[in-house]
Amino acid sequence: MLITGGAGFIGSNFVYYTLKNRPEYQITVIDKLTYAGNPDNLTPVLDKINFVTGDICDQELMDKLVADNDVVVHFAAESHNDNSLQNPRPFLDSNIIGTYTILEAIRKHGKRLHHISTDEVYGDLELDDPNRFTENTPYNPSSPYSSTKAGSDLLVRAWVRSFGVQATISNCSNNYGPYQHVEKFIPRQITEILEGRKPRLYGAGENVRDWIHTEDHSSAVLAILEKGRLGETYLIGADGEKNNKEVIELILKDMNKDPSDYEHVTDRPGHDMRYAIDSTKLRNELGWMPKFTNFEEGLKSTIDWYTNNEAWWKPQKEATEAKYQKAGH
Length: 329
Ligand code: NAD
Ligand code: TDX
Hints:
Elements: E1 2-4, H1 9-21, E2 28-31, E3 50-53, H2 59-67, E4 71-74, H3 81-86, H4 89-109, E5 112-118, H5 144-163, E6 166-172, E7 175-176, H6 185-194, E8 200-202, E9 208-210, E10 212-213, H7 214-227, E11 233-236, E12 241-243, H8 244-254, E13 263-265, H9 280-286, H10 295-308, H11 310-327
Parallel strand pairs: 1-2, 1-4, 2-3, 4-5, 5-6, 6-11, 7-10, 8-13
Antiparallel strand pairs: 9-12
Helix pairs in contact: 1-7, 2-4, 4-5, 6-8, 6-10
The structure holds nicotinamide-adenine-dinucleotide and thymidine-5'-diphospho-beta-D-xylose.
Thymidine-5'-diphospho-beta-D-xylose is lined by residues 79-81, 118, 120, 174, 184-185, 188, 200-202, 207, 209, 244, 268.
């Protein structure tokens, strides 16, 4: 199995999940080690996997790696909306050209691809909309990040239809858990509190995200890889809708702070209001169920992880906050 982006947050969690649950698989990770990729994420298992530092846009390298493996699980991407608003170009390179490069290698060697994507490709929902996203919701991305992910999904669909490549796609909601970069919402707030500062809420904080523990994302990906129908898209979600204000208040409470002790900062331009996933297809067709159904429990163990792993996040923290300061939040 070739795992792209395996030194990032979700990719490294997927490596651990697969090693534990499918010890017979031989795993190769390819990762460019951008600011978001951290080789330390995989240190404990480096003797069990093959690690290649490289760019998914490198055609020769991808051709060789794809030829040497049976399946490719493609996580590698530029993943942060705020960064895409400051400098969109790397998102076009990694998300569009990177996915194209992998597709061409998959086509040439007749291998199996699972493409990892996001619910953000569907745009956003009103707070009172009774509907949630399904596999049939029209694409309507808002940010440079989500539009490049939408573009990558459409490339996969076109390669399936035009060239008959064997691929599946999953679109997952917001992940949380260990090894998530401190630029993202939950780790940023936990580490701000650990550093003695206040959490930062964009705008009024009414925006809703549909939280899923990253281990549940991993189990869903493995289920799709092993049992999913080729050419199909599956939405992954765990019924975890919460608004940002609620999440910040929970983090403060669980860290024994006053739940109202946070700052409102400038809102993100074009900020999507609400994401919500209907994962009926995945559950009914493949029998998948999430395990982490108690968000507060999952959040508490995530807070513990960041509290106990300061050496992991500290080196990234200062540069991340400097970027935010420049962007005004
Ligand atoms: P991340 O930023 O933590 O990790 C991305 C990894 O990809 C990093 O290790 C980085 O070095 C690597 N990478 C980036 N560009 C590369 C390139 N050109 N060549 C090789 N490696 C490259 O991101 P994440 O949060 O783990 O997201 C992983 C995937 O899951 C992405 O495709 C993202 O769109 C998708 N996704 C994320 C979420 C979420 O909540 N974080 C939700 C749904 C889907
Ligand atoms: O300091 C903050 N304060 C705040 O209120 C930050 C960093 C974020 N926010 C808000 C913005 C969002 O409404 O929190 C919410 C979550 O923000 P992010 O962690 O940046 O995630 P989001 O933009 O929702 O995108 C995430 O989920 C879908 C991932 O980063 C994407 O890779 C994934 O596709």
